[in-house]
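This entry is retained here.
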Amino acid sequence: MKIGIIGAGMIGSALARRLTELGHAVAIANSRGPETLRDFAAEIGATPVTAREATQSGEMVVVAIPERAVPELPKDVFAGVPADVVVIDAGHYYPSRDGHIPVIDAGRTESGWVADQIGRPVIKAFNTIYFKNLLEKGTPRGAEGRLAVPVAGDSPDVRGRVLQLVEALGFDAVDAGGIEESWRQQPGSPCYGKELDTARLREALAAAEQSKVAEYRKAADDAARAYFTSQPAR
Protein backbone atom coordinates (compact mmCIF):
# COMPACT_ATOMS: atom_id res chain seq x y z
CA MET A 1 0.00 0.00 0.00
CA LYS A 2 1.10 3.61 -0.59
CA ILE A 3 0.83 5.68 2.59
CA GLY A 4 1.55 9.36 3.21
CA ILE A 5 2.47 10.57 6.69
CA ILE A 6 2.35 14.22 7.71
CA GLY A 7 4.42 14.60 10.85
CA ALA A 8 7.77 13.08 11.77
CA GLY A 9 7.53 13.26 15.54
CA MET A 10 7.41 10.23 17.80
CA ILE A 11 4.23 8.65 16.41
CA GLY A 12 4.75 9.70 12.79
CA SER A 13 8.31 8.40 12.66
CA ALA A 14 7.40 5.18 14.50
CA LEU A 15 4.58 4.49 12.05
CA ALA A 16 6.83 5.27 9.11
CA ARG A 17 9.44 2.80 10.35
CA ARG A 18 6.94 0.02 11.05
CA LEU A 19 5.04 0.49 7.82
CA THR A 20 8.16 0.37 5.66
CA GLU A 21 9.19 -2.79 7.52
CA LEU A 22 5.88 -4.29 6.41
CA GLY A 23 6.65 -3.41 2.79
CA HIS A 24 4.42 -0.36 2.39
CA ALA A 25 5.60 2.57 0.27
CA VAL A 26 5.78 5.47 2.73
CA ALA A 27 6.11 9.17 1.90
CA ILE A 28 6.80 11.30 4.97
CA ALA A 29 6.57 15.08 5.48
CA ASN A 30 7.26 17.53 8.27
CA SER A 31 6.96 21.29 8.74
CA ARG A 32 10.63 21.97 7.98
CA GLY A 33 10.82 20.52 4.49
CA PRO A 34 11.88 17.24 2.83
CA GLU A 35 15.59 18.00 3.02
CA THR A 36 15.46 17.72 6.83
CA LEU A 37 14.07 14.17 6.54
CA ARG A 38 16.48 12.78 3.97
CA ASP A 39 18.70 10.86 6.40
CA PHE A 40 15.80 9.36 8.35
CA ALA A 41 13.90 8.49 5.18
CA ALA A 42 16.98 6.84 3.66
CA GLU A 43 17.52 4.83 6.86
CA ILE A 44 14.03 3.32 6.84
CA GLY A 45 13.35 3.24 3.10
CA ALA A 46 10.75 6.02 2.95
CA THR A 47 10.51 9.03 0.64
CA PRO A 48 10.82 12.58 2.06
CA VAL A 49 8.15 14.88 0.62
CA THR A 50 6.12 18.02 1.26
CA ALA A 51 2.79 17.83 3.09
CA ARG A 52 0.97 18.36 -0.19
CA GLU A 53 2.91 15.52 -1.79
CA ALA A 54 2.16 13.27 1.19
CA THR A 55 -1.58 13.62 0.64
CA GLN A 56 -1.09 12.66 -3.02
CA SER A 57 0.93 9.57 -2.14
CA GLY A 58 -1.65 6.83 -2.24
CA GLU A 59 -4.42 5.07 -0.39
CA MET A 60 -3.94 6.37 3.15
CA VAL A 61 -2.72 9.57 4.78
CA VAL A 62 -1.77 9.80 8.46
CA VAL A 63 -1.86 13.22 10.10
CA ALA A 64 0.39 13.02 13.17
CA ILE A 65 1.09 16.62 14.13
CA PRO A 66 0.31 18.80 17.16
CA GLU A 67 -3.20 20.21 17.15
CA ARG A 68 -1.85 23.76 16.88
CA ALA A 69 -0.20 22.83 13.56
CA VAL A 70 -3.34 21.55 11.84
CA PRO A 71 -4.60 25.02 10.79
CA GLU A 72 -1.08 25.78 9.55
CA LEU A 73 -1.23 23.07 6.89
CA PRO A 74 -1.44 24.46 3.34
CA LYS A 75 -5.04 25.37 2.56
CA ASP A 76 -4.98 23.14 -0.51
CA VAL A 77 -3.24 20.23 1.19
CA PHE A 78 -6.10 17.84 0.39
CA ALA A 79 -7.28 19.52 -2.81
CA GLY A 80 -7.89 16.96 -5.52
CA VAL A 81 -7.25 13.99 -3.23
CA PRO A 82 -9.76 11.25 -4.14
CA ALA A 83 -12.60 10.74 -1.71
CA ASP A 84 -11.63 7.10 -1.14
CA VAL A 85 -8.22 8.02 0.33
CA VAL A 86 -8.37 7.25 4.06
CA VAL A 87 -7.24 10.03 6.41
CA ILE A 88 -6.10 8.96 9.88
CA ASP A 89 -5.84 11.49 12.70
CA ALA A 90 -3.20 10.37 15.19
CA GLY A 91 -2.95 13.69 17.01
CA HIS A 92 -3.59 14.87 20.55
CA TYR A 93 -4.78 18.13 22.06
CA TYR A 94 -2.65 19.49 24.91
CA PRO A 95 -3.64 23.09 25.73
CA SER A 96 -0.27 23.86 27.35
CA ARG A 97 1.41 23.01 24.04
CA ASP A 98 -1.26 23.90 21.50
CA GLY A 99 -2.92 26.87 23.15
CA HIS A 100 -6.61 26.68 23.99
CA ILE A 101 -8.92 25.74 21.14
CA PRO A 102 -12.34 27.00 22.29
CA VAL A 103 -14.38 24.65 20.11
CA ILE A 104 -12.65 21.59 21.56
CA ASP A 105 -12.80 23.03 25.07
CA ALA A 106 -16.55 23.41 24.55
CA GLY A 107 -16.97 19.72 23.72
CA ARG A 108 -16.13 19.13 20.05
CA THR A 109 -14.09 15.96 19.69
CA GLU A 110 -10.48 16.54 18.73
CA SER A 111 -10.84 14.52 15.54
CA GLY A 112 -14.12 16.21 14.66
CA TRP A 113 -12.28 19.52 14.88
CA VAL A 114 -9.39 18.19 12.76
CA ALA A 115 -11.89 17.03 10.12
CA ASP A 116 -13.43 20.51 10.11
CA GLN A 117 -10.01 22.11 9.56
CA ILE A 118 -8.90 19.91 6.67
CA GLY A 119 -12.32 19.48 5.08
CA ARG A 120 -12.14 15.68 5.14
CA PRO A 121 -13.63 12.98 7.36
CA VAL A 122 -10.99 11.29 9.50
CA ILE A 123 -10.45 8.08 11.41
CA LYS A 124 -9.05 8.41 14.94
CA ALA A 125 -6.27 5.87 15.57
CA PHE A 126 -2.76 5.49 17.00
CA ASN A 127 -3.23 8.36 19.44
CA THR A 128 -3.46 6.20 22.57
CA ILE A 129 -0.38 4.03 22.07
CA TYR A 130 3.09 4.96 23.33
CA PHE A 131 5.46 5.29 20.39
CA LYS A 132 7.94 2.77 21.84
CA ASN A 133 5.13 0.22 22.14
CA LEU A 134 4.23 0.88 18.52
CA LEU A 135 7.86 0.18 17.59
CA GLU A 136 8.54 -2.77 19.86
CA LYS A 137 5.40 -4.51 21.10
CA GLY A 138 3.56 -5.68 18.01
CA THR A 139 2.93 -9.43 18.21
CA PRO A 140 1.28 -12.11 16.05
CA ARG A 141 -2.48 -12.42 16.11
CA GLY A 142 -3.63 -14.58 18.99
CA ALA A 143 -0.53 -13.96 21.10
CA GLU A 144 -1.23 -13.84 24.82
CA GLY A 145 -1.46 -10.28 26.13
CA ARG A 146 -1.41 -8.72 22.66
CA LEU A 147 -1.92 -4.98 23.02
CA ALA A 148 -5.07 -3.42 21.61
CA VAL A 149 -5.60 -0.11 19.79
CA PRO A 150 -8.97 1.69 19.44
CA VAL A 151 -10.16 2.94 16.05
CA ALA A 152 -13.04 5.42 15.70
CA GLY A 153 -14.65 6.82 12.56
CA ASP A 154 -18.00 7.27 10.88
CA SER A 155 -17.70 5.05 7.82
CA PRO A 156 -17.74 1.35 8.75
CA ASP A 157 -15.93 0.46 5.52
CA VAL A 158 -13.18 3.05 6.01
CA ARG A 159 -12.91 2.22 9.69
CA GLY A 160 -12.51 -1.41 8.66
CA ARG A 161 -9.52 -0.58 6.49
CA VAL A 162 -7.78 1.07 9.42
CA LEU A 163 -8.70 -1.83 11.71
CA GLN A 164 -6.92 -4.11 9.25
CA LEU A 165 -3.84 -1.88 9.26
CA VAL A 166 -3.69 -1.96 13.07
CA GLU A 167 -3.86 -5.76 12.99
CA ALA A 168 -1.07 -5.92 10.40
CA LEU A 169 1.13 -3.83 12.70
CA GLY A 170 0.76 -6.45 15.42
CA PHE A 171 -2.04 -5.12 17.61
CA ASP A 172 -5.63 -6.12 18.25
CA ALA A 173 -7.86 -3.52 16.60
CA VAL A 174 -10.91 -2.49 18.61
CA ASP A 175 -13.83 -0.84 16.84
CA ALA A 176 -14.55 2.24 18.95
CA GLY A 177 -17.56 3.47 16.96
CA GLY A 178 -18.16 6.75 15.19
CA ILE A 179 -15.98 9.84 15.36
CA GLU A 180 -18.27 11.43 17.95
CA GLU A 181 -17.32 8.56 20.27
CA SER A 182 -13.60 9.32 19.90
CA TRP A 183 -13.66 11.43 23.08
CA ARG A 184 -13.33 8.06 24.83
CA GLN A 185 -9.72 7.81 23.57
CA GLN A 186 -8.64 11.42 24.02
CA PRO A 187 -5.80 12.37 26.42
CA GLY A 188 -6.37 11.39 30.03
CA SER A 189 -9.24 9.00 29.33
CA PRO A 190 -9.16 5.55 30.98
CA CYS A 191 -7.58 3.92 27.91
CA TYR A 192 -5.12 6.67 27.01
CA GLY A 193 -1.48 5.61 27.10
CA LYS A 194 -2.33 2.30 28.79
CA GLU A 195 -1.05 -1.15 27.82
CA LEU A 196 -4.36 -2.99 27.51
CA ASP A 197 -5.50 -6.16 25.79
CA THR A 198 -8.78 -6.24 23.90
CA ALA A 199 -11.02 -7.04 26.85
CA ARG A 200 -9.46 -4.41 29.09
CA LEU A 201 -9.48 -1.80 26.34
CA ARG A 202 -13.19 -2.32 25.76
CA GLU A 203 -13.76 -1.96 29.50
CA ALA A 204 -11.74 1.25 29.56
CA LEU A 205 -13.63 2.73 26.62
CA ALA A 206 -16.93 1.87 28.29
CA ALA A 207 -15.76 3.33 31.61
CA ALA A 208 -15.00 6.76 30.15
CA GLU A 209 -17.43 9.47 31.29
CA GLN A 210 -18.15 12.32 28.91
CA SER A 211 -18.79 14.72 31.79
CA LYS A 212 -15.14 14.19 32.81
CA VAL A 213 -13.49 15.00 29.45
CA ALA A 214 -12.18 18.36 30.69
CA GLU A 215 -10.89 16.68 33.84
CA TYR A 216 -9.20 13.94 31.81
CA ARG A 217 -7.59 16.53 29.54
CA LYS A 218 -6.28 18.63 32.41
CA ALA A 219 -4.71 15.60 34.09
CA ALA A 220 -3.01 14.55 30.85
CA ASP A 221 -1.91 18.10 30.11
CA ASP A 222 -0.45 18.55 33.60
CA ALA A 223 1.44 15.25 33.29
CA ALA A 224 2.79 16.14 29.85
CA ARG A 225 3.90 19.58 30.98
CA ALA A 226 5.67 18.11 34.01
CA TYR A 227 7.41 15.51 31.85
CA PHE A 228 8.70 17.94 29.27
CA THR A 229 9.74 20.46 31.93
CA SER A 230 11.85 17.74 33.56
CA GLN A 231 13.73 16.93 30.34
CA PRO A 232 17.21 18.41 29.89
CA ALA A 233 17.47 21.28 27.44
CA ARG A 234 18.81 20.38 23.99
User: Anything to note?
Assistant: The CA atoms of residues 29 and 49 lie 5 Å apart. The chain is about 40% helix and 15% strand. The radius of gyration is 17 Å. The mean pLDDT is 95.
